[in-house]
Write a structure and sequence with these properties.
Blueprint (H helix, E strand, L loop, with lengths): L1 H7 L5 H30 L4 E2 H13 L7 H10 L6 H11 L7 E8 L5 E7 H20 L25 E2 L4 E2 L27 E3 L6 E2 L13 E3 L34 H4 L1 H11 L6
Helix pairs in contact: 2-4, 3-4, 4-5
Length: about 290
Amino acid sequence: MVRGACVWAQVGDPLAGAERIRREDDSDAAALRAALGAWSEAFGKTPKTVAEVVSEALARAESDRSRDPSLRDALLGLTVRDKLDTRTVGYALRRVRGRIACGLRFEVAGTRHAGATTWAVVGTAEEMVGMEDMITTNAGANGGADETTEVGTAGNMYSMPTIPSHESVDRLDCTTTTPATSAEPRPEASALVSPCPNCRGTRFWRRLESAWLCRTCHPAPSEDVIAESWPPAGPKDAPDSPNGSGVGREPERAVGATVAAPGDAERTGPLRQYLNRAVHHPGGES
């Protein structure tokens, strides 16, 4: 829609530039394929400097006995120049370095003693063969693995450590039933010597392998979920036992009442002292 409006208004075709770029890319790719093929045919895998390549291309093109201008023409197509020289060829090689065409590409092979850079044509298939050789060599050096070595055995570079499986798995919550060997020891109930920081209560409970919770601030939903409690339950026939009375049970408190900690009466103020007397002495003075 936009292109049609631009063409109708005679402001130019937006796709004309894209088509020109595509044609240039196609011609550049064709020149790269010709240069890679001619270079590989002339020198094979032997690294060459740009000066050596230009000299060889001109010598072949000007020879009377075996005239072969293919290398020279391929390099001229890559440089887009009418005359071949080392400077333009060097710029062209750096521009197309690493671009793959027909499984080949130009790469820097090294430097000579005088500091001249050498170039070579590298094939992707040859790189894969070299990698396979390296893998075989490493496997043999790391454990003497031979052709019969299987994955997962010692000496094979692809082997992975075996992960021990648990003895049994609980399908309901996907947790193992095997006891953990590195679990931290649970704190003993006797360590609970400090009252609850919120309500100053001293009665706690917890589930299996869980933290201790205050019975007043966090009451248990039912007695069935309690694995341990502190202080321990007293005899059933005790008049104040937790099974019907209150051994270890704190005095009943009014809803919403706040009780000061023992020894803090001097710092609580008149309102806290009044609430403390109202809880512990409900029939006393108001």
